[in-house]
Structures are given as structure tokens and as C-alpha cells.
Amino acid sequence: MTNKFKLIALSSAASMIALSAAAQDSVSLTVVSWGGAYTASQQRAYHEPYMAANPNVTIINDDGSANALAGLRAQSQAGNVTWDLVDMLPSDAQLACDEGIILEIDHDEMLAPAPDGTPASEDFLPGSLGDCFIPQIVYSTILAVRPGAFEGEQPDSIEDLFDLENFPGKRALQDRPGTNLEWALYADGVALDEIYDVLATPEGVDRAFAKLDTIKDEIIFWTEGAQAPQLLADGEVAFATGYNGRMFDAIEVEGMDAAIVWDGQIVEWDGWVVPADGPNVDAVMDYLMFATDTQRLADQAKFISYGPARASSAALVGQHADLGIDMAPHMPTAPDNYFAPIVLDNDFWADYGDELRERFANWMLQ
């Protein structure tokens, strides 16, 4: 072989090796979340900046978080975990953690400190971190009302949701017991700080379902977060429960004519879990270090009205990136909104969730 052909062959081999190495370095991460305005806020605040800094990484969104626990269980039992990162509620995360299907997190080792050096375990808001759970946001489930549905006095309380005489019409409720059972007891006169004590008793559960029975014929159930504001916008319902950020997006961005009722808002954390047998664990952990730092959590609040889960992020929240409006009054934790909150008890739902989900599913079918 002549030197010329040797050089061509060597050059070709080197190119193939380089292409092979590049292919090996390319990573596709499947990130499971809630879809709609929420996933869009993650895309703009986390995914796009990370992919810009890491061109070898492609993030694929999967809107499967509504059934995340069941999905992870099924994948783990089949020995075929295809999800890399999952957005999950804390109560479901604790169950998944107890079952060993998601990774435990060393918060100070795996997460970035605050800009002033405060460890992650001290910077995330008290009570938000779990053994396997990394919070992103503080959000709430709220009641939204279509003003055109009623003449004169407008609904302004959870009690009004159950008042068919003064406020007739269809109600859109999520197809899960959480929120619905708490609100049923609250509307039935149970004090905010006694709701979970009552709900932990058989008599309390019966009382909550009896209250829900009073409006059952007027309920349309929704599953995905985008459905609630759509039902309201289409005029199919007079009331709709929904995530405060979804309703903010529908009202402020899309121009939907609706009003948020902050009475009895169900305040929750939402965040990430890492499947224990995920296909790209090392790449996911690098992404998490970036996506949960102080700046990124503050950035998400520029696109949706959810409060960041880090104390150091609060001062960085300002105007909406597109609308130019001050985001502070739209946060669930704003003083004018936080007058009668129900803070979701994740320990309660970890203990009683399976039983109550089964009963609620049967109740919906009756």
C-alpha cells in the first residue's frame, strides 16, 4: 500500500473513531413531567439552557407524571426502566423511595450550594427535601371560577363549590382523592388545622365522601393538568380545580376570563426523583446539579407562577419573561393569597394514600 493510500486509510479510520466517540458521548434523557404550561416553564428555564451548554445532550419530554408512580413500578417490575428523570409529588416519591425504585439523594453532595455557600440542605425550604426527593417549586391546587356563569354575587370560597343552590353548574375536579377530600371536610365545617386528624378516622373519610356525594352529579373529572382550564375556557363548567400556575397561564397569557379563589388552597411541593435503574444515571445527576441551583429555580418563576423551593432564589424572582408583569402577587405564598392555606400532609398520604385512592376510584364509578 502506498503512503498516499495509507494516509487515506488512517485518516478514514481516525474519522470513524472520532464519530464513534461522538456517538458514545451523545445522550438522550427522557424527562417525565406534567405537560402544558408547566413543562414549558421547565423547558425554558432548565432544559434549553442545559442543552445549549451541553450540545451532546438531548432532552425528550414525556407528559406522564399524572401516573408516574404506577409507571415506575411497572417499568421496575419488568426490568426495563426507560425514564431518566421523573417529576413526582412528595407522597408518591416517599412510597417509591420505600420500595427502592428511586435513588436516595445526598443533598449536599449531589446538589449545588447557594451562591453564598449555604449547603443545599439548608437552602431548600424547611420540610421540602425528602430522602429521594428534590423539590423544584411550591405550588397550590386552587379553585377557579368562570364569572359569566353567575349573575350578581360571585363564588369566593371552597364552601361555594359545594353550594348548588346559589351556584349551580358543572364542576371540574381532578380524579384523585387528594384535594377533594380535604376540601369536602373544610366545606363541611372542619377547621383547617384539624382536617387531617379527622380524615385519619373512618368516620372522617365517610363524612368527606358524603359531602362529595352532594355534588357528584355535577362533577366532570379531569386527569391531565391542561384539561381543567380548557373545560373552564370552553364553558363546559362553572368551577374548575387546577394548579395555580396552569390557571395563571390560561388567564394572563391566553386571556381566559376566569378568577382564582385562593381560599383553602392546597399547598404542595413538586420535584424530581431519579429512577434507580435508569439508563443514564450519571448524565441525569449532572443535569440535576444544574437544574436545581439557585438561578435555575428563580428562572422558572419567570415563566409560571410557582414559587422556587430554594430560599436563595426568592430575591431573584422578578417580572414574567414575556408579559413583563410582576410575578410576586401571583405566587401562592403571596400574603394576600396565603390567608387560609391547607398544607398538604405528605406523611398522611404516604400512610393512607393507597387505601383512599382505591376507595375514590370505586366512588367515581358508582
List keywords for this structure.
366 residues; alpha/beta; D-Maltodextrin-Binding Protein, domain 2; 2 domains; 10-stranded mixed beta sheet; 15 helices; 10 strands; 42% helix; globular; disordered N terminus
Description:
The protein is α/β, with parallel strands linked by helices. The chain folds into two domains: 3-137 and 270-329, Periplasmic binding protein-like II (D-Maltodextrin-Binding Protein, domain 2, 3-Layer(aba) Sandwich), CATH 3.40.190.10; 139-268 and 336-365, D-Maltodextrin-Binding Protein, domain 2 (3-Layer(aba) Sandwich), CATH 3.40.190. The protein has 15 helices and ten strands. It has helices spanning 3-25, 36-53, 68-78, 90-98, 107-110, 120-123, 158-161, 180-187, 195-199, 202-213, 227-233, 244-253, 281-291, 294-300, 346-365, and strands spanning 27-32, 57-62, 85-88, 134-145, 171-174, 219-222, 239-243, 259-273, 307-308, 342-343. Strands 1, 2, 3, 4, 5, 6, 7, 8, 9 and 10 form a ten-stranded mixed sheet that branches. Helix 3 (68-78) packs parallel to helix 4. Residues 1-23 have low confidence and may be disordered.
